[in-house]
Amino acid sequence: MHFKKKHRQKIKQQNALQKTIGTSVSYKQYIPSPLLPTKAMPYNHRKPHDGHHPLTNPTNIRQLPTNTTTTTTTHFGYQNVPISEKESKVREVFESVAESYDVMNDLMSGGLHRVWKDELCRMTGLAATSRALRSSSLGTSNNLDFKTLDVAGGTGDVAFRFVDAMNCVERAKSSGVDNLSVTVCDINTEMLRVGERRARERFGSDIIDSSRSLSFRQGNAQCLPFDDGTFDLYTIAFGLRNVTDVDAALRDAYRVLKPGGRYLCLEFSNVDNALLKQVYDAYSFHVIPTIGQVVAGD
Asked: Which regions of 152-289 does DSSP assign to beta strands (E)?
């Protein structure tokens, strides 16, 4: 009975806070909301597993085989390569295009990738999260935080949108509070070098040197260099296709997320309309590779 009473009180606090920032209070009990940090709302998490089904048991999920097939090849762009070679090939490609990566995306998508990434940022609810943390009466700034991880985001194109949405720079400068943080993780050191340089140019050196608002970390999506339950939000934009073992990457995403954390993936998909599919395939298989070769110079 005591637990139920505390739970009802927490739900009331959540609803009151959501009303304060003008958001809809239509979330089901176990649908995670980005509006509140997990530490502030410990009961706002995904529905607990029943302990009987191995796929829903957090203890067992990381013990599943990393590769349930006997396939020895995997996709790399528009060709198949040995699984053992994909990671090195991906690293070579992105090392060669790090400086021109964002320009390449502009050319390949006609600038649409910027619209898609803006929408991804909107879907995260980070702006509302920032407002909630500033106005929350649930605790002090020392026990409220919200940590975001952007995987395969080396040049910072997505992360910079998150920093802007949460006003990380202004908050750090005005109060020294760094409870809103964004971590960029990428397997490629050259991409990270470009991203960190652009971050200093855009936000100033303090964003990295004097606070933890924005940080860059090398790591593999299949075995991230972070502790369990570290992040409230995990995003990956146009990066999942480059992962050798997607299942392993998804398991590790689950591992590093806090209970109630959110996973958002921005990626290309299939086109169902037959006419559009012809146009899409022609553009994907002929135009995009040509643009990539010209920009990369190979």
From this structure: 180-186, 214-218, 231-237, 257-266
**CB neighbours of residue 195 within 10 Å:** 25
Asked if 202 and 164 touch (Cβ cutoff 8 Å), the reply is: no
- Which residue in the block uniquely carries the two structure tokens 């012809």? 278
**Can you list the domains of the chain with their CATH numbers?**
2-59 (no CATH), 73-266 (3.40.50.150)
SS3 259: strand
For every residue of 79-98, DSSP letters joined together read EEEEHHHHHHHHHHHHHHHT
Rounded CA-CA distance 100/105 in Å is 9
Going by their DSSP bridges, the two strands 214-218 and 180-186 should be labelled as parallel
Q: Look at the pTM and tell me if it is higher than 0.70.
A: no
pLDDT per position as a tens digit, 60-114: 444 444 444 456 876 555 567 676 666 666 666 666 666 777 777 777 778 888 8
3-state secondary structure 11-61: HHHHHHHHHHCCCCCCCCCCCCCCCCCCCCCCCCCCCCCCCCCHHHCHHHH
| Cα distance between residue 265 and residue 239, in whole Å | 9
Question: How many Å apart are CA 16 and CA 183, to the nearest integer?
Answer: 30
Q: For residues 56 and 48, what is the distance between their CA atoms, to the nearest angstrom?
A: 9
Phi-psi region of 261 (alpha: psi -120 to 50; beta: other; left: phi over 0): beta
